[in-house]
Amino acid sequence: VNLAEEFDILQIVGEGWFGKILLTEHKTTQTEMVLKALPKAYTAITDFYREFHYGLHLSAHRNIITTYDVAFETAGFYVFSQEYAPL
């Protein structure tokens, strides 16, 4: 997936050692969401799958952020999408 082709990056919501949270808008659906990008250099693929899987299955609960069924990788990051829930 090419991020620039699929998403407009609106701002970096958070950034740290374990990755970045990007506020984006999906170009086709005009849906606002965040992309959680975890660097491949510090993240094992099994850890990424675990976090994505748990988020996806637990997001049915009304008090947990929705994780969308969208995950992909770029050259340097593993990425999945979640609903945007501003403070």
UniProtKB/TrEMBL annotation:
Repressor among keywords: no
InterPro entries: Kinase-like_dom_sf, Prot_kinase_dom, Protein_kinase_ATP_BS
Positions annotated to bind ATP: K36
Gene3D superfamilies from the UniProt entry: Phosphorylase Kinase, domain 1
Single GO term (MF): protein serine/threonine kinase activity
Sequence ranges assigned to domain Protein kinase in this UniProt record: 7-87
Swiss-Prot/TrEMBL keywords: ATP-binding, Nucleotide-binding
PANTHER family hit by this protein: INHIBITOR OF NUCLEAR FACTOR KAPPA-B KINASE EPSILON SUBUNIT HOMOLOG 1-RELATED, SERINE/THREONINE-PROTEIN KINASE SBK1
Protein name: Protein kinase domain-containing protein
